[in-house]
Amino acid sequence: MGALLLAGAELVATNPDALLPTPQGALPETGPLVRYLEYASGKTAAVVGKPNPYIVRLAPGRRGLTAGQVVMVGDTWATDIEAAKAANLWSVLLKTGNGVHPLSSGPPTFHLDGLLELTALL
Questions:
Q1: Distance between CA atoms of 122 and 20, rounded to whole angstroms?
Q2: Does residue 119 contact residue 112 with C-beta atoms inside 8 Å?
Q3: All residues at 6 or more sequence positions from 10 whose CB lies less than 8 Å from its CB, including other chains
């Protein structure tokens, strides 16, 4: 893959998540691999998924909804909540997921313990 990047291929990433929570503990996610490839190639990855708000903005319109009618639920502040904020959506951060909370554009609309609490809220 590195040879392709050095030969001119574009670097495209689905997300920059650092960690993937699992029952056995956190594992490296896409972000560390992307950083490695960026460093090795001198290129900057184009992130096409969260936190890029493109898809998050596109989805409500396809369902005939406005941003004010949509809630983004996620477990990762840096991608899920940041994408929701960029798309002007309500946001719910579930504490059951990724506990890394970078400095950001602000807190989620709701910060819940898990899906059971979300179900009660709905």
A1: 27
A2: no
A3: 43, 46
